[in-house]
Fold these 4 entries.
Entry 1:
Amino acid sequence: MKIMVGYDGSPEAWDALELAKKNAKAFDGHIYVVTSMKGGDEDDKKKIDKAKESLEYAQNNLEKNDIACKTHLLIRGLSHGEDLVKFVKENKIDQVVIGIRKKSKVEKLVFGSTAQYVILNAPCPVLTVK
């Protein structure tokens, strides 16, 4: 079973990773830990380095628990939701696990909701953790 975790280093993403670990153990799964960034300018170098460190931390945690995993930092200019769904389709992922945060209606309108986009557009089951 291929399990993708949308991961940004937040507490919600960490909770999603923990649930994915349980599912991977139960179903002999392989976890893909994925971070999506828009990218674009020199100021993003620090953010990219921080994202790489966060992915490495997640990978080390999974490997300590004997769970097969790969990390991916996506910088393709897509919105986070589009990027994650594209990755799911490209890699024939069986299940997505993502953490969600409570947002006001205005925040959703202005910033959108990555989780909502993934839930509505992923071609596989999506588990959300709050």
Note: The first strand starts at residue 2 and ends at 6.
Entry 2:
Amino acid sequence: MSRQQPRYSAEETARRGDEIYERHVRGQVEAGNYGKIVAIDIETGACAVDDTAQAAANRLFAQHPDAEIWFVRIGHRALHRIGIYPLEG
């Protein structure tokens, strides 16, 4: 199955995704899922949690094939980090 072009700008996707996460999803997924990824359909509010973004997306697409997905790493401000960080030791 080929994916279509995004229906929203990156900014609108982020705005909607963050709003849905804060208002509806966070309270349902935070307990016991720290560090996991939640994939959120920004149109329906449906979500799926898994260890990786790809696995969470696959679970969400299985239920909502046309989902517009925003990812959040549970308990973190960002999904990925950029750059090299020193290890604590």
Note: The chain has a mean pLDDT of 88.
Entry 3:
Amino acid sequence: MPIRVLICDDEGLTALRYGATLKRLGYEVVGSAANGEQVLEAALRLRPDLILMDIEMPELDGISATRRITAACPTAIVVISAYSEPETVEAAMTAGASGYLVKPVTDDQLEPAIHGALTRFAGRLAPGA
């Protein structure tokens, strides 16, 4: 059964590119969202295995959305952002992200980032972790 991915990015062309790459790699794209409120609702409804999460979005930023999703329905999340400052990366990871990529993201970076995030997320769920 393919891994189910939800894409959250307010730039439509970026979300479409991620979707095409994910499908080519064998993942199932179950939906997309253009802001943090939409991704929260979609995560609760769709229960994806993984979320690709932009940080800079309208209504609710990606770090706040990650924190809320992690509290409501823990999910592996890869944050994708133009921000590379250590404080931003740390804030995303503290909020519950399992991975972080800095834009621009190449197709070759997605698969290892997803694999790493799913592995880290599974480790958090393991007994005694």
Note: Strands lie at 4-8, 28-33, 50-54, 76-81, 99-102.
Entry 4:
Amino acid sequence: MTLALRLGRTVNELRNSLSASELKMWIAYDRLSPIGDWRGDVQAAQISTAIINTQGGKATIDEMLLKWGKAEEEEEISGFEEWMGAL
């Protein structure tokens, strides 16, 4: 689906026009340079982490990274959340 979205084609169009060897090349390329929206989420998390840390906070990329499709679990308030709450 991600490749179809990125190429502006339907999955059916890709099935009918993409050879197995070309699909293997896309898979290898995706490992080197992700073609999905996940890469943008990681980049946004890196920037958010850098900004928060330069302002005296303590954040990790994992804390800033969006967690799509995962059910929210009740967790203890992290140091970062406490710091943000104090602002």
Note: Residues 2-32 form one domain.
